[in-house]
């Protein structure tokens, strides 16, 4: 092989070093921003989970004509209810992926009321303090306040 072909076969050490330096610089900017905001990440995860549960509740209503009652709770999304008004066309396999109702990012349960005070249903988490209300980092995450 000629020297020209050997040069075309791969990256030079300089090229690899430049890429590694660029990745290091990017990591230096990105990692501190992510690592410095774990509580913000948990709050965002709670919002995403609430939106996912809301979607499952809407599918439940499409199939059965109404939302699960407060008594049936969110468990009605993963197993057919046996109390209250029984669903007429409960979907085999349930309405939530992974076959279980997720806990909020702080390990607590999502709370569900139907009929809700703020809409057809209310879905919320008490946040990191596990208590109703709260401000700033301890504020509740409520379905009726999501964008």
Profile the largest sheet: 3 strands, antiparallel
CATH class of the largest domain: Alpha Beta
Distance between the termini: 63 Å
- The CATH H-level superfamily of the largest domain is Glycoprotein, Type 4 Pilin
Q: Unreliable runs, pLDDT <50, ≥5 residues?
A: none
SS-based structural class? mainly alpha
Instruction: Quickly give the CATH architecture of the largest domain.
Output: 2-Layer Sandwich
Number of domains: 2
- Measured by DSSP, the beta-strand proportion falls in 5-15%
Shape: elongated
What is the number of E strands?
Answer: 3
The rounded Rg comes to: 24 Å
Percent helix:
25-40%
CATH topology of the largest domain: Glycoprotein, Type 4 Pilin
What does this structure look like?
A hairpin with an 8-residue loop joins strand 1 (111-113) and strand 2 (122-125). This protein folds into two domains: 3-35; 39-145, Glycoprotein, Type 4 Pilin (2-Layer Sandwich), CATH 3.30.700.10. The protein is mainly alpha-helical and 147 residues long. It is elongated, with a radius of gyration of 24 Å. Helices cover 38% and strands 6% of the residues. The chain is built from three helices and three strands; from the N terminus they run αααβββ.
């Amino acid at each position: 092989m000629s020297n020209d072909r050997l040069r075309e076969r791969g990256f030079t050490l300089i090229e690899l070093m430049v890429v590694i330096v660029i990745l290091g610089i990017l990591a230096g900017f990105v990692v501190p921003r992510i690592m410095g905001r774990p509580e913000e990440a948990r709050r965002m995860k709670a919002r995403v989970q609430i939106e996912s549960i809301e979607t499952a509740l809407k599918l439940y209503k499409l199939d059965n004509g109404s939302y699960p009652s407060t008594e049936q709770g969110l468990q009605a999304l993963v197993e057919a209810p046996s109390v209250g008004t029984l669903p007429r066309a409960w979907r085999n396999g349930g309405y939530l992926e992974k076959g279980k109702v997720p806990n909020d990012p702080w390990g607590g349960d999502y709370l569900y009321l139907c009929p809700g005070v703020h809409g057809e249903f209310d879905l919320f988490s008490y946040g990191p303090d596990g208590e109703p209300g709260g401000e700033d980092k301890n504020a509740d995450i409520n379905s009726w306040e999501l964008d």
